[in-house]
Specification:
There is one protein chain. By secondary structure, the chain is α/β, with parallel strands linked by helices. It has one domain: Rossmann fold (3-Layer(aba) Sandwich). The protein has 5 helices and 11 strands, in the order αααβαββββββββαββ. The strands form 3 sheets. A 7-stranded mixed β-sheet has the order 6-3-2-1-7-10-11. The radius of gyration is 16 Å and the shape is globular. The relative contact order is 0.19.
Length: 195
């Protein structure tokens, strides 16, 4: 199936992904702060009602960049009581770990992440649900990230976890180019739908 890309078909998958990133990052940036906040609240309500979230003890979420869908309303939701929330921390130029935060620091990409010196590392196998950010997705539940591969490498180690992506509907692409390393999502939740 042809990916959602208008450029020359001779482009590699990597080049197609780069072009798609530019398109969908712009679509995400075009949303107003009010629209992002309202969508974040709707997505939090939807996730909180899903059985995979209700049944999860350990949930991996992320700290949002200003233009990303914010999961903080989920962490504050009444359905989150008693759950252990862990966050990604870049521990090398290619790997991330899940940490139960004891303190925060500004990470490699300007993202708030747990300070590994003051936080507890949680084994990937101990995580019940991972909620990923991303740049774009399609209805086949393919996710396009920022291109560094941190999540795909980490998710390959999460043996029992259900994997969601939280996104704005504006990030939906007709079809995304993918490679063998790309991990498909179990569900993608937007302010309008669950895919």
């Amino acid at each position: 199936m042809k990916a959602d890309f208008d450029g020359p078909v001779s482009l590699s998958v990597s080049e197609q992904k780069q072009a798609l990133r530019a398109r969908y990052l712009e679509a995400r940036r075009a949303l107003s702060a009010e629209a992002r906040k309202a969508a974040s609240l709707r997505v939090a309500e939807t996730i909180a009602a899903l059985p995979a979230f209700r049944d999860a003890c350990t949930v991996m979420v992320y700290r949002a960049l200003p233009e990303e869908l914010d999961l903080q309303p989920l962490a504050e939701h009444p359905a989150s009581a008693g759950k252990r929330f862990v966050y990604p921390c870049c521990v090398s130029s290619t790997e991330m770990a899940a940490m139960l935060p004891g303190a925060w620091r500004r990470g490699r990409f300007g993202i708030q992440e747990p300070d590994p010196l003051a936080s507890e590392e949680i084994a990937p196998e101990a995580i019940d649900l991972v909620i990923c950010p991303g740049v774009a997705f399609d209805e086949a539940r393919n996710r396009l990230g920022h291109g560094a591969g941190y999540y795909d490498r980490f998710l390959a180690r999460c043996g029992k976890a259900t994997v969601f992506m939280a996104a704005f509907e504006a990030q939906r692409a007709p079809v995304l180019a993918r490679t063998e390393e790309d991990v498909p999502m179990d569900r993608i939740i937007t302010e309008k739908a669950v895919y």
